[in-house]
Design goal:
This protein is 32% helix and 22% strand. It has four helices and six strands; from the N terminus they run E-E-H-E-H-E-H-E-H-E. It is globular and about 40 Å long.
């Protein structure tokens, strides 16, 4: 139920927004953060402001544009992971998943190849193909997010899941 303001950018969120996802048993707060560009850990773009927000969460859900080439999709994910590693705070305690988005715009063969490449490079990271337009994959992703929230034991943390776009943007 987030009311994110959007713009004509590779990433669409201009300001962080909070939304709530709920089922019959519980609610999870989701922070939707703008795409983080290369150099964010050194203060470029929205830089450290949004990395600090990301640090206060329990979970990182990377949204990867499925319409990119496989090479660009992997590179964009790697850039975000590098920014997290280069930032002065330790993000290693946060579990990460990958959501391949816009699956309604790509054929099944291309999607399968993209998933296989991510599985090969990141074998311990869960991958969820989703489409915001058709709704494909969203029920499964929601179910799994609620399961993860039940398993969380991190103290002094609200029920925050972070969702931010992963794109390779030039400085």
């Amino acid at each position: 139920n987030s009311k994110s303001k959007i713009g004509n950018y590779a990433f669409t969120t201009l300001d962080p927004e909070l939304g709530v996802m709920e089922n019959e048993r519980k609610k999870i707060t989701i922070a939707d953060l703008p795409g983080i560009i290369e150099g964010a850990s050194q203060g470029l773009g929205l830089g450290t402001k949004f990395l600090k927000h990301a640090y206060r969460t329990k979970f990182l859900l990377h949204l990867v544009d499925g319409t990119q080439t496989t090479q660009d999709a992997l590179k964009s994910f790697d850039i975000i992971e590098k920014e997290l590693a280069d930032f002065h705070l330790d993000f290693s305690h946060q579990k990460r998943w990958i959501c391949i988005t816009k699956t309604d715009l790509i054929d099944q063969k291309s999607l399968s190849e993209l998933i296989l490449e991510f599985q090969t490079k990141y074998p311990s990271t869960a991958i969820y193909p989703i489409s915001s337009i058709s709704g494909d994959g969203l029920d499964i992703l929601s179910e799994e997010l609620f399961k993860q929230d039940r398993k969380s034991t991190r103290l002094n943390s609200s029920h925050l899941v972070i969702s931010y776009a992963v794109f390779c943007l030039k400085k």
